[in-house]
Design a protein that fits this description.
Methane Monooxygenase Hydroxylase, Chain G, domain 1, 61% helix, HD-domain/PDEase-like protein
């Protein structure tokens, strides 16, 4: 499981990874492949419709593994931990999920964001972005779990449950 709190920093600055791969003596073509996967796998790239050139099985496997960590029971826990660490409101029915997110808008810290909106803005989209058959199968179950969780959460929030 990938639980790196500074993963976004890693994709922006791969200096640490480059140094590690060099110390390991990895040949240049493989090093470039690993760095390309790291730089291209983020959700923000897909949101901005950046067409990443790497469509290899390795890219799909790494991207799917990263996305599977973001959904399901652990994904829900991560969503709330992250939201809390950024002082995001848990839920505010007056703050609607952002639509048609660009990379800039997705990364923006200026707009009010809620943890529940993150389900609509990102988490529910990941199932359909999986690249591998195994990733798609695992994502289906985790996606359904999140839907059930959010349905129950909203019923309790509104006082209906």
């Amino acid at each position: 499981m990938i639980l790196t709190p500074s993963k976004s920093n890693l994709t922006e600055d791969t200096t640490i990874v480059e140094k590690f791969l060099e110390e390991e003596g990895l040949e240049e073509s493989k090093k470039e492949k690993v760095l390309g996967i790291i730089k291209g796998m983020g959700f923000k790239n897909e949101v901005s419709q950046i067409s990443w050139a790497d469509t290899s099985l390795e890219f799909g496997v790494v991207q799917d593994a990263d996305r599977l960590d973001a959904i399901g029971a652990i994904g829900i826990a991560r969503c709330f931990v992250y939201g809390g660490s950024k002082n995001h409101t848990l839920h505010d029915p007056q703050v609607l999920p952002r639509q048609d997110l660009s990379k800039t808008k997705y990364m923006s810290k200026d707009e009010k964001q809620t943890s529940i909106n993150h389900f609509y803005e990102k988490l529910f989209k990941l199932k359909d972005l999986m690249k591998t058959k195994a990733g798609k199968e695992r994502a289906e179950k985790r996606h359904k779990f999140m839907e059930g969780f959010l349905e129950e959460f909203l019923e309790e929030w509104s006082g209906k449950a």
